[in-house]
Specification:
By secondary structure, the protein is α/β, with parallel strands linked by helices. It folds into 2 domains: 2-239, Metallo-dependent phosphatases (Purple Acid Phosphatase, chain A, domain 2); 244-368, no CATH class. The chain is built from 9 helices and 18 strands. The strands form 4 sheets. The protein has a 6-stranded mixed sheet with strand order 4-3-2-1-13-14, covered by helices on one side. Helix 3 (94-103) links the parallel strand 3 and strand 4 (108-110). Helix 1 packs parallel to helix 2, helix 5 (258-265) runs parallel beside helix 6 (286-299) and helix 8 packs antiparallel against helix 9 (349-368). The radius of gyration is 26 Å and the shape is elongated.
């Protein structure tokens, strides 16, 4: 048999750090991921789509989002969707799950109790639904004694693996060898937002749509094939994500061309589907820093989102740079004072950083002013 393993869609996630347009686009992409999952299942000739928790980002998501999600699943009537509660949409969300139970299409199965779900004659799903956001116990224990006959045994759970950790800060309680202990052919896990193999039979699918700059592997799902009960599953990553999140950390040195270094490090295509967090470190002269800032401002609209963080960039001290701010008067006096404050001697690193930022901004503003 074949099935698609996914988790952590977090539908209706607010994305509060972004502007309104980006928030809307990211929320739309997550809802669109449901349809892309259905398409991927059909392409891969899968029979089931297992969602290992956190389909929704909150216990009370907007009613319209719930309706849209169920509508998408109903469009794929040839597939069975198995939904497990997670941390964000645990069984404590009584109203949510009662509403889904009432409105769901016939091809949606809710895994709300730790009971065997038989799929046809050959498959048994063993779910471990979180009762609350942080249950604090290993809810997969019951799988060991579950009697499934000759069926393929597929565990479905959400949470942190012992000594591995959790995406949401929950207690890591699931045993890393749960699949082996409970004779599972496969354990489908949710909670960690990047794809990761714990054992050949135990996988985190990751989120089908990226949601952070943590550097996870490409957002997607897992196509799982089990030839026969007891066989090691064949697991194939399937890309699903619409947006590409990039953390770009560059170290700069005075005397180089920082603008060119940045341009060469950025992708040349598909920038409109990219969210970039650019973090600069090292040391540059004031003129070089101004050139780098100008380059960032010039390319920012090429990307769906571009954030530059230059606070970690130190100043390569050169008095000649101050002449580019002013050669005299109050402005030069301010520049001299800030320049002196960038020396660590007798100052805290925090005070020096504040002075560096202020001096950089002063230089940049002075460069933008029309010459007198």
């Amino acid at each position: 048999m074949r099935f698609l393993h996914t988790a952590d869609l977090h539908l209706a996630k607010p994305f509060g750090r972004f502007d309104a347009d980006t928030q809307a686009a990211l929320r739309t992409a997550r809802l669109g991921a449901l349809r892309r999952l259905g398409d991927a299942a059909r392409t891969g000739k899968a029979e089931l789509i297992l969602i290992a928790g956190d389909t929704f980002d909150a216990e009370a998501p907007p009613s319209k989002v719930v309706r849209r999600a169920l509508d998408v699943m109903s469009e794929f009537a040839d597939l069975l969707w198995v939904l497990l509660p997670g941390n964000h949409d645990s069984l404590a969300a009584v109203d949510l799950w009662e509403r889904i139970e009432r409105d769901k299409p016939d091809n949606v199965i809710l895994a709300l109790t730790p009971d065997i779900i038989e799929i046809g004659d050959h498959v048994a799903i063993l779910p471990a639904p979180p009762t609350v956001r942080n249950p604090g116990v290993d809810l997969t224990n019951w799988m060991t004694d579950a009697q499934t006959g000759q069926r393929s045994r597929i565990g479905l759970a959400h949470g942190g693996i012992l000594d591995f950790g959790s995406e949401e800060g929950t207690v890591a309680v699931i045993q890393p060898d749960r699949a082996e202990q409970s004779k599972l052919d496969y354990l489908a896990l949710g909670d960690w937002h990047g794809q990761k193999s714990i054992t050949p039979r135990t996988w985190y699918s990751g989120s089908p749509e990226a949601d952070s700059f943590k550097g996870h592997s490409q957002a997607g799902a897992l196509l799982v094939e089990i030839a026969a009960p007891g066989d090691v599953p064949q697991v194939t990553p399937v890309p699903i994500g619409q947006f590409d999140w990039r953390l770009l950390a560059l170290d700069f040195f005075a005397g180089t061309d920082p603008a060119q270094q940045l341009i060469e490090a950025l992708p040349a295509s598909d920038r409109d589907k990219m969210l970039v967090r650019f973090e600069a470190s090292g040391r540059l002269g004031l003129l070089e820093q101004s050139q780098l800032r100008d380059t960032c401002n010039r390319i920012v609209d090429d990307f769906h989102y571009f954030e530059m963080i230059l606070d970690g960039l130190g100043i390569e001290q050169a008095v000649d740079d101050l002449d580019l701010i002013a050669t005299g008067g109050a402005l030069r006096a301010a520049a001299d004072s800030l320049f002196e404050a960038t020396d660590l001697q007798g100052r805290t690193a925090e005070d020096v950083q504040i002075a560096q930022i202020a001096l950089t901004h002063l230089f940049h503003v002075a460069q933008q002013e029309p010459s007198q």
